[in-house]
Amino acid sequence: MGLFEFTGVWPAARVCSIGSLPVNVILRLHWQGPTDLSVFMTAASLAFRRPPGPADAVPLGIDPQTLKTLEALDAEYGSIVSIEQPSGRLAYFVNDAHEVRQLLLKQHAKYRKGPGFERVKMLLGNGLIVSDGDIWRRSRRMIQPAFSRQKVHQLLGVMQRCADRLARRWAEAASSGTTINITEETSEFSLDLILISIFGSDANAWIETPGENPFSFLSRDSTRDLSVVMKVRALREMLLDLIAARRDRQEACEFDFLSMYLLAKDKDGVAFSDAELLDELMTLVVAGFETSANTLNWAWYLLAGRVDVESRLLNEFAEQLPDASDIAQDNLTAMTYTQQVLEETLRLYPPVWLFTRRAEEADVLGDFDVPPGTDIYLSPYLLHRSSRYYEDPDRFDPNRFEAALQPKKDRPYFPFSLGPRRCLGEYFSFLEMKIHLGILLPRFRLERVSDDKPELELGINLRTARDIMLRPTQRD
């Protein structure tokens, strides 16, 4: 609290402000006669340490202009910038690796989801990505066992079969000399995989019959506009019927995520309601395929321009996966260079380029105070490409992620977020992508058909603005 110090009998202390800044001052009123009141302000000291930033209001959103704006603000004002939003709400852009880790790991309880999640909620409901507080904590505890390594390893065969299906299609394209749309191919692979992983044999009819997959629009339509919302509503009705059928089914079911979710109980022994289960399934479908699909899309594009990286991968696959029909978890763990390639791809093209938090309690970031209600903007894309942390940051260099060079605990790196809200499906995603590359890269070399650099589409997820076309040739 500020202090008012008076001579004479005056009310007690209070905080005053100058403009929008709270100020701690000592104010002395000296009574010098019946007609002369002199006011002296002395030793003013700011109680609120605000980061530097522009004087004018700055609009922020999930759009390309926001990326340019944040990049310019970082260059002009430094790694923590204060921004007055048009609404009048204060915002900080934090592009300091240490402070990002503090916020997401150590001080996470002081923050909740920030602006921008309304669009996601329209699609996914109040699932794990969107929910906060007690709802989020309950759901996270109930879902987490399904993503244990032991459980995920039961899906290795599904991952392999989906990659084999893709290989057969690519062989036909290579034989005919046609190009493939790698953006569509990786999306279809990842969508098929997550649907089978969630719904088991119930998904087979959707995937195996052309034109029958009710989820296929998710892999083709990135606009997430009202028409997509209407399609999602139809999906939700279909899934409610599927949930009801699964609840009524008496016989044992093969392992899939829906089975695990149906069995999950909270600390009081209460299961998910149909509405809760529906939100979590929609979240898993969308989040479960988009991250891997986009990462593989970018990985194939990057590999097509780097024969040296491709050669090292092929050597690792020859050593660890001599028989692609028999993939063991230990071999996947030993594929350390493949892990580096994927991590470097995620550094350059993180699936979520911008996310937000809102302070519920006062906090401190660096040398600056964070008042309750402050919006926090974090950009993995900009931090990952900052020359403060990476030499030649726009260059694709998997060697950056050698364990000896960059211990995990110190990485300026958060493509899957950090802390308690770190993505539960991260391990699943890396296994999926390793199997995909391990089966397909030894069989096919993909070449670029254009020298144009792909443009970015900056929506909720980071995508290519236009699909990437590559030409496959079969290896001897």
Mean pLDDT: 87
Globally, the shape reads globular
Based on CA atoms alone, the radius of gyration comes out at 27 Å
CATH homologous superfamily descriptor of the largest domain = Cytochrome P450
Query: Which ranges are low-confidence, i.e. pLDDT below 50, for 5 or more consecutive residues?
Result: 1-46
Briefly note the CATH topology name of the largest domain. Cytochrome p450
By secondary-structure content and strand pairing, the structural class works out as alpha+beta
**What is the correct CATH architecture of the largest domain?**
Orthogonal Bundle
Q: Helical segment tally?
A: 17
Number of strands: 15
Main β-sheet, in a few words?
Answer: 5 strands, mixed
Count of the separate structural domains: 2
DSSP strand content: 5-15%
Considering DSSP H and I runs of 4 or more, what fraction of the residues is helical? 40-55%
- Within the largest sheet, what's the order of strands? 4-5-11-8-6
Distance between the termini: 76 Å
Which CATH class of the largest domain applies here? Answer: Mainly Alpha
How would you describe this structure to a colleague?
With 476 residues, the chain is of the alpha+beta class. It has two domains: 1-48, no CATH class; 64-474, Cytochrome P450 (Cytochrome p450, Orthogonal Bundle), CATH 1.10.630.10. Helices cover 43% and strands 15% of the residues. It contains 17 helices and 15 strands. It has helices spanning 64-77, 97-106, 118-124, 133-143, 149-152, 156-176, 182-199, 204-208, 217-220, 226-248, 257-263, 274-303, 307-320, 329-333, 336-348, 380-384, 426-440, and strands spanning 16-18, 21-31, 37-46, 80-84, 90-94, 111-113, 180-181, 355-359, 363-365, 368-370, 375-378, 444-448, 456-458, 462-464, 469-474. The protein has a five-stranded mixed beta sheet. A three-stranded antiparallel beta sheet has the order 1-2-3, with no helix packed on it. Strands 7-15-12 form a three-stranded antiparallel beta sheet. The radius of gyration is 27 Å and the shape is globular. Residues 1-46 have low confidence and may be disordered.
